[in-house]
Design brief:
Layout: E1 2-7, E2 17-22, E3 32-39, E4 49-52, E5 59-60, E6 77-85, E7 100-106, E8 113-118, E9 120-122, E10 125-127
């Protein structure tokens, strides 16, 4: 599928940036975009997220950071890629099981590179674990 690479930039002791590489992604319908998320679960804050650029049906990002978040490597949380409407500026990942496309669970101990897996929508439920 692809990889997520957590990076320590500057003098940071934490993984304050990440990079996403996926070689092949399906073309999305007009008005839709890929988004990457670090799901925070029941917490009330906005999940770190990014609209992901697609070039020649691949996603290769530069180093991504999120304002106010100094450590993006959050064990026991999940990184998720969804498809979202461009017209809205989402604060949470799309809950439609068919909109949840790729994921990886962030587990300790830290591994700087994690392999993304494909989600499968089955009977209205998303299998992303």
């Amino acid at each position: 599928m692809g990889h997520i690479h957590f990076v320590k930039t500057g003098s940071s002791q934490d993984y304050n940036a990440l990079q996403i590489d996926i070689e092949q992604v399906p073309e999305l319908p007009q008005g839709m975009a890929y988004y990457g998320w670090i799901e925070l679960g029941g917490e009330q804050t906005i999940s770190p997220h990014w609209q992901l650029p697609v070039s020649q049906q691949a996603i290769h990002t530069h180093l991504l950071t999120f304002p106010g978040v100094t450590n993006l490597y959050l064990p026991y949380h999940r990184f998720l890629i969804t498809k979202e409407q461009i017209a809205s500026s989402p604060d949470i990942p799309n809950i439609d099981p068919h909109a949840r496309l790729y994921f990886v669970t962030i587990n300790p101990p830290p591994s700087a590179i994690l392999d993304l897996k494909q989600c499968h929508a089955n009977d209205g439920a998303s299998i992303c674990s």
